[in-house]
From TrEMBL:
Organism: Leptospira brenneri
Name of this chain's protein: Adenylate/guanylate cyclase domain-containing protein
Alphabetized UniProt keyword annotations: Membrane, TPR repeat, Transmembrane, Transmembrane helix
Domain Guanylate cyclase span(s) in chain numbering: 445-571
Gene Ontology MF annotations: adenylate cyclase activity
GO biological process: cAMP biosynthetic process; intracellular signal transduction
Presence of the UniProt keyword Magnesium in the record: no
InterPro entries: 7TMR_DISM_rcpt_extracell_dom1, A/G_cyclase, Adenylyl/Guanylyl_Cyclase_3/4, Galactose-bd-like_sf, Nucleotide_cyclase, TPR_rpt
TPR repeat ranges per the UniProt record: 634-667
Amino acid sequence: MKKSFLILTLFLVSCLSEERNTKAEAQKGFLDLSQHSFASQPFVALHGEWNFFWNTPPSKIKETSSNFYLVLPDHWNGFPMPYGTLGGFGHASFRLKVKLAENSTETMALTVHEQDTSYAIYVNGEYLGGAGKPGSNPNEYSPKVESTLVVLPKGSDLTIDIYVANYIHRKGGIWTDVVLSTYEKGESRITKRKINETMLSSILAFVSLFFLVMYFYNRDGKHTIGIFLFSMAVFLRTISTGERILLEFADVPYWLLLRLEYISWFWSAPLLYHYFYTVFPEDFSKRMGNFFYALSAILTLGLLLPPVYFTETASIYPFGFVANGVLIFIYLYRAYKKNRMESKILLLGMFVVLAGATNDVLHAESLIHTMYIAPATVVMFVFLQVITFGRIVRQNIDKTLEFAEEQKQFNNSFSHFVPTEFLYHLGKTDIRDVDLGDQVQKRMTILFADIRSFTEFSETLTPKENFDFLNSYLQRVGPIIRHNNGFIDKFIGDAVMALFPYDINDAIKAAVEMQEAIRIYNSHRANCGYIPIEVGIGIHTGNLTLGILGEHKRMEGTVISDAVNLASRIEGITKLFSSRIVISADTFIEASDGLGYHYRLLDRVAIKGKTESVFVVEVLDGYEPAKASRLVSTKDDYTLALDAFRREDFEEAIEGFAKLLDKNPDDSVSRLFLDRSQESKEKSKMEMGS
């Protein structure tokens, strides 16, 4: 902050810095500069007593025709004449005789800045330049305000006449310094002033547009439109006062230029107040803001009148202008005492603006003779606002990042309850977008996994031990499901229901890896003296409806489908066959082309709730590797025995399954079919005997 302020201060000084005028006081219309060194003091302001010739052009001046002297710079308004005091309208000549050094080789020049409201420069009786066209009556006169630099003739004795006319402004006369210098210095000064004002106006235009763009990106940031309007008002005043750089780009008539100057002046104060009100609404009075708005609106309507009327406001409005600045400063100080955010830097900026505005008002009223500095101070103020805006943006970004991180953590936390994949398939990216009744139809593979005899098993554990056990188990199988492109839809006690939306083989691969993880888990349990667990897994593929179910105060994601029920029933079949992994025929058929696992057909089984029985298939890779290897090696024998059973050739079936059990005593499926074959054989004998 301190570095930024130092940089801005140096910028302001660089804009305002120029060699100051040396005031030379003329006496009775004469000024002796024969001993003056223009090398050490290059700019001499020709102050003091000038001969004043009222209603007289230079060509009609007689040396004895007037013994009136007017101390310049000043307006002639109120000057006492034998017939009364002068008003603002009229024309007059100002004469000053100057004595320069005899041996000077420098090319000298005279700089005359804007005067009210036209002037012509004569030196030794020769017209050298001016602004507008002064004349003895309004018909011979045309107003214009701009600076003029003229080259003076060689010689040590100069008679300078400045002819001024005014029939439009409230005041007339020479109210700014008339400066004598070398031509090189005078030209350099005017050029520098124009460059500075061009640079200041460019900065103001850029910054105002910057804040306008910011407003369109964030309509809630009303302070940005406030600083835009204030910057634009000062921009208009910068190009219409001082060196009036607007005239460098367009031939703007005097009546328009004057009104542009006044309207920008009238509105800069209330717009600045409005800006601070939007930043600190608790500390600024809205009523006072409305008062200044009303005052500026009335004065703006006055611009429809001739200049002689509305320029009279220049003697009244400065009090309102300065009062506005003082009120802003007081309210800002109040905000600062309350430790409002960024109030300190704004208070500093306002102090600079108030100082610049006060200087400009006093300069315009000829109470002091300096130069317009308010635009430069406003640029400094606006830069401070940019710094403030940047800090606010940075704080908002930090808050946004914090909020985003909180949202991320929130979403991550919520994804523990509602999987992000669930939202994705609903076409949602945020849990807040989910509404009751949202649903979509998909074809997916459903996996059910259930711990066998968990009810009896859990009765031997305390409630805490039950939770610890289930969490330990689920910590092992959950990641496997996600790793294989699936997601857990819900936990149903000790059972897990998972969905695999992309590839059937993802579900089968997950089931095989889950069984492997359970075997590892059982080895750890055995080391701790705990009994092993067995998990049956059923898989089915079908169409399902995935959506949001419940009521407005309590909703949850769920899946509704006959396919889900069938997958659950198939998991139950694993208990019948004492199998590890059983899949439906539908799943088997769809996956068979890319099925990378060993399998064997089981049987057509009746499913509760289904009118037709369903073929099921066992995935052999769900067993421990040694058992799986044995089952794979006898798969052909198993197929022949199963075929005999289905042909009701029970003798062959019994023989076949018996041989299988000799090789694989722990083949629970062959044992089941052997028992069924024997039962069916006995039943056939009984039926034949009867």
